[in-house]
Automatic annotation (TrEMBL):
Tree of life domain: Bacteria
Protein name: YdcF family protein
Organism for this UniProt entry: Actinoplanes hulinensis
Annotated DUF218 domain residues: 47-155
Gene3D superfamilies xref list: HUPs (3.40.50.620)
InterPro entries per UniProt: Cell_Envelope_Assoc, DUF218, Rossmann-like_a/b/a_fold
């Protein structure tokens, strides 16, 4: 008997969709100097990075990320290394990929990637920053703080909320992450880690309702 696909609880769907849509920057994808894949538990980052390489959106790809408690089981050799292996297995030339294997947060992802590029004598004026869907806004705000002069476009594997939840297989994990990233938009700006982002009242209310409903595992 086939198990039913993982889905967002109906009583929380409107609030979850509101956060999901808020974090999607809706950027138009166009050619840039470098593609940057941010390490995480989600192999979808490597997938979209590979797809955009073959669509000729960039000539060079950097994967960045060490490990975290949530990723070491899936990617024991490190997030960036596993992403690179996926890209090469799917046809991206190895000499078109650089890896940064020390970063443990988004700020370090961007700072250390910039250092890697500079060590290669490369100065990027534009990048596509690839992440989990719900990480786009935070990644954008962090990049504009850490690397303000670069033109940054955000991208993720183009999945609907339902398809993404089904791909992860754990609705609570996805909602916890959405809630956590929403909190970080304000907290990280207040701490100087990211530029401020508008946080609509409707998003704030959805965030509060989901916290009260128990989706709080990723709160600071």
């Amino acid at each position: 008997m086939t198990a039913a696909p993982a889905t967002v609880p109906a009583e929380h769907r409107e609030d979850v969709e509101r956060l999901w849509n808020y974090h999607n920057m809706g950027h138009e994808i166009r050619p840039v100097d470098v593609g940057i894949g941010l390490g995480s538990h989600d192999l979808g980052v490597a997938k979209i990075a590979t797809e955009l390489y073959f669509e000729k959106m960039y000539p060079l790809l950097v994967f960045t990320g060490a490990n975290a408690p949530t990723t070491i089981g899936a990617f024991p050799r490190g997030e960036a290394i596993h992403y690179r292996e996926y890209a090469i297995e799917n046809g991206v030339p190895s000499d078109a990929i650089l890896v940064e294997t020390q970063a443990r947060n988004t700020g370090q992802n961007i700072e250390l990637t910039r250092t890697v590029l500079e060590e290669q004598g490369m100065r990027a004026h534009s990048v596509i920053l690839m992440s989990r869907p719900y990480q786009q806004r935070r990644a954008y705000a962090t990049c504009k703080k850490v690397w303000p002069e670069v033109d940054v476009i955000c991208a993720s594997l183009p999945l609907s909320l339902d398809d993404y939840v089904a791909s992860i297989g754990n609705p609570k994990k996805v909602i916890d992450m959405l809630v956590g990233d929403t909190q970080r938009i304000g907290k990280y700006a207040d701490s100087g880690f990211a530029i401020p982002q508008d946080l609509p009242v409707t998003v704030q209310r959805s965030f509060s309702r989901l916290v009260r409903a128990g989706y709080d595992n990723r709160l600071l």
